[in-house]
């Protein structure tokens, strides 16, 4: 297996979570996925430049296909290389029940309307399942999008899919958009150094002189706040409400300026806590976990998945606009939803927060995604 050359020593695995690329499905060229070197610390994690990566997102043409009882094996070519993708079959497609088969025969001559002329839920569900099943079986020449984890098996690099589907792209609009976006991602993210190599104060080694760096503390603070919000089902809060969560971390903070600040402004621990909390809140806003509905001196943060008004506004926009002829076939594009919700709910809503809310609504079956960026209601 050819590996990437000229890479730096990998950072400590304790710090990988501080790199945004680590938590994302990295959109990489297949040639780079094939060349990534495997971590010496944790098998199954790979490095592109200095970025730890274990899951990727690719788009390419199927150039070979094998089918087994439990999975499809597709060879995917994006123009830079070919990689094998193991795409697991859904349980409901392996042994379809008799009711589904009989429903399919009966549904061929039936309409969407029910016996009383209303909405036929069973018929719509059957059609949706047929569509899902059709998107899971591809032939050579079809365009396939795969998300999954990278594995090395028998010396060959491959992708174990967590989701995959056939992409309809008759005029190559999706492929053109994809190939235009990748160079931007490389310049903005993948070719940038690991965050801890930026040279910022406190962003050096993980442990120096018995003191944990600010960067590693930031990771711990972020996780502590996430756990608190999830366990307590917090809907909204102000910084002063959660400041106490970071107090156990303060003894580990760098104390170089303590003696200088103590004489002028008293103990320096509160200022350290405020700085750590400010950075933690900034990171949680960047990934969409939190948002601020109104920007004011009263710093009120809303937890995205717990804000019922936001979730209702998003669902209402999708439900209403999906009835329009323009969105009837594919549903509402995420940028249309973002624009509409900003007008109706808050101008400060970010796209990451919207994406978190959309995933939450989809997991609760309030909406469904018809493609990577389009949503509708059942």
Average pLDDT number: 80
Name the helicity range: 25-40%
Beta-strand content: 15-25%
Biggest sheet, spatial arrangement of strands: 4-5-6-8-7
Taking the alpha carbons of the first and last residues, their distance comes to 46 Å
Low-confidence stretches: 1-8, 95-112, 197-212, 252-269
Structural class determined from secondary elements: alpha+beta
Number of helices: 13
Gyration radius, to the nearest Å?
25 Å
Shape: globular
Number of strands: 16
Q: Secondary-structure element order, as H and E?
A: HHEEEEEEHHHEEHEEHEHHHEEHEHHEE
Major beta sheet, specifics?
Answer: 5 strands, mixed, barrel
Question: Can you offer a commentary on this structure?
Answer:
The chain is an alpha+beta fold and 378 residues long. It contains 13 helices and 16 strands. Helix 7 packs across helix 10, helix 11 packs across helix 12 and helix 11 packs across helix 13. It is globular, with a radius of gyration of 25 Å.
